[in-house]
Amino acid sequence: MYWEPEKETMEREELEQLQLERLEATLNRVHMNVPFYRRKFDALGIDTDDIRSIGDIRKLPFTTKDDLRENYPYGLFAVPLREVVRIHASSGTTGMSTVVGYTKNDIKTWSNLVARVLTAGGITKDDVIQIAFGYGLFTGGFGIHYGAERIGASVIPISSGNTARQIKIMQDFKTTALICTPSYALLIADTIMEMGINVNSLSLKYGLFGAEPWSEAMRKEIQDKLKIVATDNYGLSEVMGPGVAGECLERNGLHINEDNFLVEIINPETLEPVPPGETGELVITTLTKEAFPVIRFRTRDLTRLIPSPCPCGRKFMRMHRVMGRTDDMLIIKGVNVFPSQIEHVLFDIEGTEPHYQIIVDRKGAMDDVTVKVEVSEPIFFDEMKKQNELMDLIKRRLASELGIGVNVRLVEKKSIERSEGKAKRVIDLRKI
Ligand code: DLL
């Protein structure tokens, strides 16, 4: 089922024509209204009229998170503040937060795109949706909320936190779809089990999870524990929030809302496009945003495009689940490692709990990595021999997946902090 079939099944040629028209309009708007872009284009001698095909986008300069920070708070807005009806900001865990704005029209577009993602994930107006993303400056809560209302579903704006209450509401209000981060979904699932509630007595059918990286193994874990169909959806505040891309029920890559976002995959070192289908950094240009358009925004997210047609019939290109961020990448003994690779290994090992943390420290000139993993109770309290066997097994599997050895520490169940929002998987002691 589609939310906007005429758009979602548009032929490529027609789509590219639409993208080009919208790109030209966006470029004219930013050139006219945002001094930052005007200066950059003028310095490079770029006339917006020179952009005559989608491929010409490569002539334009990139925009980075630093550019956004330097223009804090409103410097990159393309409309006067009186036309802005909503302001969000990214959490700013890695520095000053970035501020984004939306016009009335932007909110309409955003709701519509989220409605597409929700519909692709199985949601209809008959669903009762529990939104357990934080409501506030974070785009997750409000972004999903407006899209869900747009569909006509019954929305429970519970926000994140208070897990016992989440579960009570889920039981009493007969929630059919849960929307939050995958790590919070797992915490909810584990709490349901601990409370001795039979998951089959709940009405849950679908889960739409996003806002942080997760693995296929984690999807399986959540689906099994909550007895739902779980899809992945992606977005980022700088570009819009949720609604940029989402999986359909095939669960094999996220359809990008290409009529609103022009995407490129570049090599983050050379900044050149990667060959089709190869992994690199996702770069996004917004095509319809009024208040806060971005041109060639470097997301730092690593993914690849999946050009083959999807059996669901949507024509929008899919992207592979985000494998990690360029700034999350660990270089251990010269080898590039992403937390998601470690997760993939751990989730497949019997006797471990799906909770882990990666601690990076420096010993002399070398990075030293310890993977802390929770083990299930019987093993933790069992004899040393069993613990050692399990530790060896984890070390061996990690070594074969990563190509390097890391330290492993088994810890008691529940000793790693649980997350109600985005999980913090990597503790980097090197920066302290
Ligand atoms: O996380 C927007 C969002 C809200 C998306 C709700 C989906 C659902 P930010 O807080 O600005 O915005 O964080 C954006 O989170 O650049 C990715 O690194 C990461 N991220 C978001 N979705 C996914 C996903 C929201 N499905 C940053 N898989 C992005 C992996 C994701 N990483």
Features:
alpha/beta, 432 residues, binds 5'-O-[hydroxy(phenylacetyl)phosphoryl]adenosine, Rossmann fold, 2 domains, 12 helices, globular, 9-stranded mixed sheet, 4-stranded antiparallel sheet, 25% strand, GMP Synthetase, Chain A, domain 3
Can you walk through the features of this model?
The structure is a single chain. The chain is α/β, with parallel strands linked by helices and 432 residues long. It folds into 2 domains: 327 residues, Rossmann fold (3-Layer(aba) Sandwich), CATH 3.40.50; 99 residues, GMP Synthetase, Chain A, domain 3 (2-Layer Sandwich). The chain is built from 12 helices and 21 strands. The strands form 5 sheets. Strands 4-3-5-6-7-8-9-14-13 form a 9-stranded mixed sheet, sandwiched between helices. A 4-stranded antiparallel sheet has the order 10-11-12-15. β18 and β19 form a beta hairpin. The longest helix has 22 residues. The chain is globular. The model has no long low-confidence stretch (mean pLDDT 94). The site of 5'-O-[hydroxy(phenylacetyl)phosphoryl]adenosine (DLL) has 22 residues, from α6, β7, β8 and β12.
